[in-house]
Amino acid sequence: MTTSTVEDAVLSSANHVWTLRALGNAQFGDARPTQWAVTIAHDLIAHPDQSLASTYEGNFGALHAAYRFYDNPAVTPPRF
Question: I need a surface site. Which of 40, 57, 59, 71 has the fewest CB within 10 A?
Answer without folding.
Answer: 71
